[in-house]
């Protein structure tokens, strides 16, 4: 067979399977801060299921636990440490200003 008539074949790559982020012994609970804090971004947002590599049921339980911890003020709703750090802005210069009298 010439190359033009060969069927399309996927290249076989070896994958290293990643371990699930939640072990079988880990309990998803609002008091388990070490577990919950792994699924929150630096800004305080809940990370998506695709990023976390969680099952749908695990993501739901994590989301509920995070919300409960926020309500009980174990976690902040926002992590706004860097929100107010701004560099000095240059003054606006759009052109000469004239005053109307």
Automatic annotation (TrEMBL):
The keyword Magnesium does not apply. It is found in: Plastid, Chloroplast. GO terms for cellular component: chloroplast; mitochondrial small ribosomal subunit. One of its GO terms (biological process) is translation. Transmembrane segments: none annotated. Keywords: Chloroplast, Plastid, Ribonucleoprotein, Ribosomal protein, RNA-binding, rRNA-binding. One of its GO terms (molecular function) is small ribosomal subunit rRNA binding. Residues 1-24 are annotated as: Disordered. Pfam families: Ribosomal_S18. Residues 1-19 have a biased composition (Basic residues). Belongs to the bacterial ribosomal protein bS18 family. Part of the 30S ribosomal subunit. This is Small ribosomal subunit protein bS18c. It comes from Tacca leontopetaloides (Polynesian arrowroot). The lineage of its organism: Eukaryota, Viridiplantae, Streptophyta, Embryophyta, Tracheophyta.
